[in-house]
Design a protein that fits this description.
It is built from 10 helices and 10 strands. The protein is an alpha/beta fold. It has a single domain, classed as Alpha-Beta Barrel (TIM Barrel). The chain has an 8-stranded parallel beta sheet. The protein is globular and about 50 Å long. About 45% of the residues are buried. The mean pLDDT is about 95.
């Protein structure tokens, strides 16, 4: 089961037996007050710096989100996507809850994008899946529906199967769906991480699908979030998550270490290269 994404010329393949593909999360105003203010002012100048840092750290795909308060996403999301692909030859993950903004951004995307996201809610299925089908994109599928986020792995699997069935009716195969088993904060439920891990195992066993997740969602409100995120990310990769949305500058070494321990890095060459690159980036920043 392989999901192929493309940039202007680059091809990135997500697959169960392949090295983990990091989707860089930094082009997103959530939790970034300065970037949010810049977007509200129509200033995209920070984006090339974020692109370069994430690609250098090993991101294979870049999430692009301009969803700050008052920002016209239909106008600015396509501009951000164009700027990202002018800066680096990478596939993009187009991130917006607005189907019109998704369509506008897909029209200017070079290659094949990943759309972030659809879920099992009837409104999202009927508004997002046709856009994905029209543009031949791949799409992240969140295991939640009109009743919210299910509390058990089995119920999340049922939502995934529902999305898969609806997508198939539009000619979107399972290879074009990257499922998200969903992460809730452990500060609210100490079993939240375990449910996500068990959901990922079940999705891989039953659907054979590729998976993403926002690992950092688990640590909100906790001390030493970076440690928690790193440990959880490695656990997720072990159970089958192969395209996590993360900060590669902080998480790349853990991701490459997980790949190495799972036998996906012959002679540890990718891990060693990641170590050298991140060490050089840290030295340059001091």
């Amino acid at each position: 089961m392989q999901t192929e994404l493309r940039g202007p010329t680059a091809v990135v393949t997500i697959g169960p037996d392949l090295p983990t593909v990091m989707i860089g999360e930094r082009i997103n105003p959530t939790g970034r007050k300065v970037f949010s203010a810049e977007l509200q002012a129509g200033d995209l100048s920070r984006i090339p710096r974020d692109v370069q840092a994430q690609v250098m750290a090993g991101a294979g795909v870049l999430d692009v989100n301009v969803g700050a308060a008052g920002v016209d996403e239909v106008k600015w999301l396509p501009e951000a996507v164009k700027l990202v692909q002018e800066t680096a030859d990478v596939p993009v993950c187009i991130d917006s809850p607005n189907p019109q903004a998704l369509a506008a951004a897909l029209k200017v995307t070079q290659g094949r994008a990943l759309v972030n996201s659809v879920n099992g809610e009837e409104a999202r299925l009927s508004s997002v899946l046709p856009v994905v089908a029209e543009h031949g994109a791949a799409v992240i599928a969140l295991c939640m529906d009109d009743d919210g986020i299910p509390t058990t792995p089995e119920d999340r699997l049922r939502v995934a199967e529902k999305i898969l069935e609806r997508a198939a009716k539009l000619g979107i195969g399972v290879e074009s769906l990257v499922f998200d088993p969903l992460v809730l904060t452990i500060g609210s439920d100490h079993r939240a991480g375990l449910v996500t891990l068990e959901t990922a195992r079940l999705l891989r066993e039953k659907l054979g699908c590729n998976m993403t997740v926002g690992a950092s969602n688990s640590s909100h409100g906790m001390p030493n979030r970076e440690l928690l995120n790193t440990v959880f990310l490695a656990q997720l990769i072990t159970v089958g998550v192969n395209a996590p949305i993360c900060n590669p500058v902080k998480n790349a070494l853990a991701v490459r270490a997980a790949d190495l321990m799972l036998g996906r890095d012959e002679w540890a060459m990718t891990y060693i290269q990641a170590y050298r690159t991140l060490s050089s980036m840290q030295e340059a920043a001091t």
